[in-house]
Amino acid sequence: MIHIRPAAQADQKAIERIIRDAGINPMSLDWRRFVVAEEGSNPERSRRIIGVGQVKPHDDGSRELASIAVIPGRQYQGIASEIIRALLANESGNLYLMCRAELESFYARFGFRAVDKKEMTPHFRKIIRVVNLFARIAGGRGIVMKREQNDKLEMTSDK
After folding, report:
1. Which of 31, 72, 140, 153 could tie 135 with a disulfide, CB 3.0–4.6 Å?
2. Is 43 in contact with 62 (CB distance < 8 Å)?
3. CB 64 within 8 A of CB 55
4. What is the Cα Rg of the chain in Å?
5. What domains lie within the chain, and their CATH numbers?
6. What tens digit of pLDDT does each residue of 79-122 get?
7. How far apart are CA 74 and CA 26, in angstroms?
8. CB neighbour class for 111 (10 Å; exposed up to 12, middle 13-18, buried from 19)
């Protein structure tokens, strides 16, 4: 059984480990912005954190869905989708994210759409250039996506 809950200070090391192991941006990993997915049904026994995600603010006022990661062996089981749904349930404003272009359809099911530079906030216009420089070296491309304040969460199955 999977349980999604707000992170606690004691979860900081697990958050950092999962993000590092996933190979995604290790900056701004403040446990207070995270939710964690735990495995196990008995609250009196130790539950294992198997996934994480956050919404982080930027200096330009934008907010980003970020640091979505699930441990190997538990990926492709809908856990990332549950983390995203939990994070979106508490968001009412516009929300951005950055991802590899091949993940566009995954995030589209949550109401995100790819945007061009003129729709990006200053933070994302600046950072997407750097991201795509490194992505090209690795043979990929990064994109910025946006979920408008009025968009409804589309509940599609991902299993």
Report:
1. 140
2. no
3. yes
4. 16
5. 2-147 (3.40.630.30)
6. 999 999 999 998 988 999 999 899 999 999 999 999 999 999 99
7. 21
8. middle
Q: Looking up tokens 């956050």, which residue turns up?
A: 54
Which single residue is written with the structure tokens 């099911």? 109
Q: How far is CA 55 from the centre of its chain?
A: 7
Side chain identity, residue 108: A
Give every CB contact of residue 115 below 8 A, 6+ residues apart in sequence. 144, 145, 146
- Residue 87: which H helix or E strand, with range? helix 79-88
Between CA 24 and CA 13 the distance in angstroms is 15
pLDDT < 70 positions in the chain: 41-45, 132-133, 135-139, 150-159
